[in-house]
Amino acid sequence: MEKIISLAKRRGFIFQGSEIYGGLAGIYDYGPLGVELRHNIKQYFWDKFIKEREDTYGMSAAILMPAKVWEASGHTELFADLMVECLLCHRRFRADQEEVLSEHEEEHKKSLKEVTTFKKMWSGPKVFNLLVETRLGSSEETATSVYLRGEITQGVHVNFKNVLDSMHPKLPFGIGQIGKAFRNEITPRDFLFRQREFEQMELQYYIKPGEKVGREMFEYWKQFALDWYYGLGFRKESLRLRQHAEDERAHYAKDAWDIEYNMPGIGWKEAWGIHHRGDWDLKRHAEFSGVDLSYFDEVEGKRYIPCDIECSGGVDRAVLFVLLEAYTEDEMNGEKRVYLRLKPELAPVKVAVFPLLKNKPELVEKAREVYLALKKQFGNVLFDDNGNIGKRYRRQDEIGTPYCVTIDFDTLGEKPELKDTVTLRGRDTGKQERVTISGLGERISSKRP
Fold it and tell me: What is the dihedral sign for C-alpha 402, 408, 410, 411?
């Protein structure tokens, strides 16, 4: 984890939020490369869950929602963690994070002389609601209490009728979105894993009530979500499905499973959730809003409240897990190197273009020509003429660039048979080959690094 945090900052992936002012715990900013990686992951979600399907629709709900939304969903009452306070330094922690509590105890043990003092270290557990509250309005008297959404799910449910009335979908159908959520986490930790401001990608898939239909569709979406995560480039042994125990399920869940990632040095952690929410959300919002959120089944000639199967994952967790999974150390040409074994579709930079020497105008001019042509085709292409070729290769390896293209004197015709060819180098193996400039784009598109 420490190596990833260091690489992420050094290479422009992720920075501590507002770092020059001391930063905020659980808040991170994405740099030039990080924002591209995150965008590519989100685009992959949108492609597979929305664009390539006939039965799903996309939307984007507002972050601010009335307090009554969260009363209806149960978050005002139930969206909470148990918190304990250290009676020695008055820092607060989640009561269920035993490892964190033990580490804190060890810190104090070094300075404590009496065991009796140590035994009185923790307060009793108290309930702490995770919703972030704010107020909207021009004066204190008229201001309305609202919450920054604790999850993006409710934005879909409160728009269920709007989608029905505007798109006229037939069951089963899904509504997906990507967006920010906020939780006043007591102890944010493990870099991007547990934050106070984060991004989610979700699909709410509405189905006809019934045990058989629910079971079949739930199994379908469990496998679909797992296959999607494998599509990010994970090894089979790095992921697993785990069912929630009954006392572990959320208040709305009929069944719940997690896709978990085996974090190096930490263990299995939640990456994605698949929940059978039943008809909890639509029934509650119909009750609290007074608006009919039923679906009219034209085939059966009756109305009913659909059930919902939720596929939900954190964008930031996906970014973290992709980086951890891709991080590789090996040896090349007798030197240790670090590289990110990212799928080309996810890599922030698709291709890097180098002139062999920066002080030869004819090489630079030709390299710029190749660079601009590739940029039109692939978008995120980088031009680099700083340092020797070996160092440039290492820089690109470390940020996961799949291919590097070098323009040398043979490109210019020093050897007539090699005129208008370039050296194409793959990231993972370091293998190089000569490719014609005219066939370069096709070659990059068709091969693996």
Answer: positive
Does the structure show a pLDDT above 80 at 76? no
Cross-strand bridge partners of residue 310: 204, 275
User: How many whole angstroms separate alpha carbon 111 and alpha carbon 211?
Assistant: 58
How does pLDDT run across 208-220, given as a tens digit for each residue?
999 888 999 999 9
Tokens of 70: 């969260």
**Helix, strand, coil shares of the chain as percentages rounded to 5?**
35, 30, 35
- Buried-exposed string 50-77: b where 16+ CB fall within 10 A, e elsewhere: beeeeebbebebeeebeeebbebbebbe
Query: Per-residue pLDDT tens for 8-37?
Result: 999 999 999 998 999 888 899 999 999 999
Helices 32-46/315-326 angle, 10° precision: 110
Directed axis angle between helix 315-326 and helix 2-10, to 10°?
Answer: 100
Q: Count CA atoms within 13 Å of residue 347 on its CB side.
A: 28
Return the pLDDT at 115: 44
Domains and CATH numbers, the chain: 2-67+131-324 (3.30.930.10), 83-129 (no CATH), 349-446 (3.40.50.800)
Write the burial class of residue 416 (CB in 10 Å: 0-12 exposed, 13-18 middle, 19+ buried): exposed
pLDDT tens-digit readout, 296-338 = 999 999 999 999 999 999 999 999 999 999 999 999 988 899 9
Name the residue among 398, 412, 397 with its Cα closest to residue 356.
412
The 10 Å Cβ neighbour count of residue 233 is 16
Burial of 119 (0-12, 13-18, 19+ CB in 10 A): exposed
Q: Percent of the chain, pLDDT > 70?
A: 96
Pairwise CA distance, residues 41 & 383, whole Å: 24
